[in-house]
Amino acid sequence: MATKLHLKKNDVVVAVAGSDAAGKKTGKVLQVLAARGRVIVEGLHFVKKHVRKSQERPQGDIITKESSVSASNVMLFCPHDKKGVKVSRTRLEDGRVVRKCKKCGHLFD
Fold it and tell me: From CA 80, how far away is CA 102, in angstroms rounded?
């Protein structure tokens, strides 16, 4: 069964751990892989893949594509605090459950 993550597609996140965190890179979440606890972030982690010869690529090729990173290595970016923040879940009066910044109270959903 898939676990619930603190991230959703199109969230802006900051890398906080791993080799990608050296420059505190930010990016948009392209895909959430909840079953594996990983996310694919735009411009964050690249891998090179060797491609066989085909009609499309008669010489073969080496392509660079984005790879997944662990969801624990990224934090949600708060626009008010201008940095990565921890997130809590709160229930509103209308019954919706939304994510809220623990520092400033900004609602993300």
Answer: 12
Alpha carbon distance 9, 15 (integer Å): 16
Please write the tens of the pLDDT for every residue from 15-46.
988 766 666 788 999 999 999 999 999 988 89
**Which positions of the chain have pLDDT values less than 50?**
none
Structural domains of the chain, with CATH: 12-101 (2.30.30.30)
Strands (E), the chain: 12-15, 26-33, 38-41, 46-51, 61-66, 68-70, 74-78, 83-85, 87-91, 97-101
pTM of the predicted model as reported, rounded to 2 decimal places: 0.80
Residue with tokens 């491609």: 51
Q: What pLDDT is recorded for position 2?
A: 63
C-alpha 23/C-alpha 34 separation (Å) is 26
Q: Kindly report the backbone phi and psi dihedral angles of residue 94, in degrees, each rounded to the nearest multiple of 5, phi listed first.
A: -80, 5
